[in-house]
Design goal:
Layout: E1 7-11, E2 19-22, E3 25-30, E4 33-38, E5 52-54, E6 57-59, E7 66-68, E8 85-86, E9 88-91, E10 94-98
Antiparallel strand pairs: 1-10, 2-3, 3-4, 4-8, 5-6, 6-7, 9-10
Length: 102
C-alpha cells in the first residue's frame, strides 16, 4: 500500500477496542483487521462509533440501520446510502487513517 498522504496516526494501544471514534471517522476492528468509515449515519445524524459492531456489521444506535465496514455498503434496516471508506495502514505499532475517503 502506498504511503497515505494527510493521515492521522494512532499508537497501537488506541485500537484494541472494537470501535474507536477518530475525528469524523469510526475505526473498526474486525478480527484484527482495521477498517475506517464515516462516523455519521447516512440516514440520520447519529455517531456510528456509539453503535454496535457484530462481525463486520456496524449498527447505527439511532434506528438500527447496518453497514458493512469492509465495503461501506448499506446492509440492512432503514439505511440505503453507503458510507465513505478511508484507507487504513498498520506499520508496527502505528496506525494511519487517510483523511480523504474513497
Amino acid at each position: 500500500m502506498p504511503s497515505l498522504p494527510s493521515a492521522k496516526r494512532l499508537g497501537h494501544s488506541h485500537w484494541m477496542a472494537d470501535i474507536l471514534k477518530l475525528d469524523a471517522r469510526a475505526l473498526c476492528n474486525v478480527g484484527g483487521e482495521l477498517y475506517a468509515v464515516d462516523d455519521v449515519c447516512t440516514h440520520a445524524w447519529a455517531s456510528l462509533s456509539e453503535g454496535v459492531l457484530v462481525g463486520a456489521q456496524l449498527e447505527c444506535p439511532l434506528h438500527g440501520g447496518c453497514f458493512d465496514v469492509r465495503t461501506g455498503a448499506a446492509d440492512g434496516g432503514i439505511v440505503t446510502e453507503d458510507l465513505r471508506r478511508f484507507a487504513v495502514r498498520v506499520d508496527g505499532a502505528e496506525v494511519s487513517v487517510s483523511l480523504s475517503g474513497d
